[in-house]
Amino acid sequence: MKFFIGKKEDFKEKEGKEVVIDGRPIAVFKVKGRFFSFKNICPHKGWKLHEGAVNENTLSVKCPGHSWEFNIATGEYVGNSNIKIRTYNIIEEEDNLYIEI
Ligand code: FES
Predict the structure, then answer these.
(1) Report field, pTM of the whole predicted structure over 0.85
(2) pLDDT in tens, 19-51
(3) Helices (H) then strands (E): counts for the chain
């Protein structure tokens, strides 16, 4: 099922934004013009990942809680791929963005 999450222009480069779909908090990031999303709950202690610092070179975000770092595209914890956040597919249709759940 796909859910409208906003216009492309609503998302700023390297800045995370939280959207809530069907009660699920989801982090959306725009990096180098591409869009990514994953569950917005850090698997360590539950801090919100959309508030983390984005590194566009490594395509990663650091949790604002205790600096665990996650690959934005895959949701994997950098350094231990056994820890992974659920990712969601983003669909771009003209100026609109949708999340597939
Ligand atoms: S809550 Fe994310 S690193 Fe601790």
Answers:
(1) yes
(2) 999 999 999 999 999 999 999 999 999 999 999
(3) 0, 11
Q: For the chain, how far is it from start to end, CA to CA, in angstroms? A: 5
Cβ burial, residue 27 (10 Å; 0-12/13-18/19+): buried
What whole-number distance in Å separates Cα of residue 30 and Cα of residue 8?
A: 9
Q: Is the CB of 65 under 6 A from ligand 1?
A: yes
Q: What is the mean pLDDT of the chain?
A: 97
The CATH topology of domain 2-100 is: Rieske Iron-sulfur Protein (2.102.10)
Gap between the Cα atoms of 85 and 92, Å rounded:
22
Q: How confident is the model at residue 79 (pLDDT cuts 50, 70, 90)?
A: confident
Kindly state if the Cβ of 64 falls inside 6 Å of ligand 1.
no
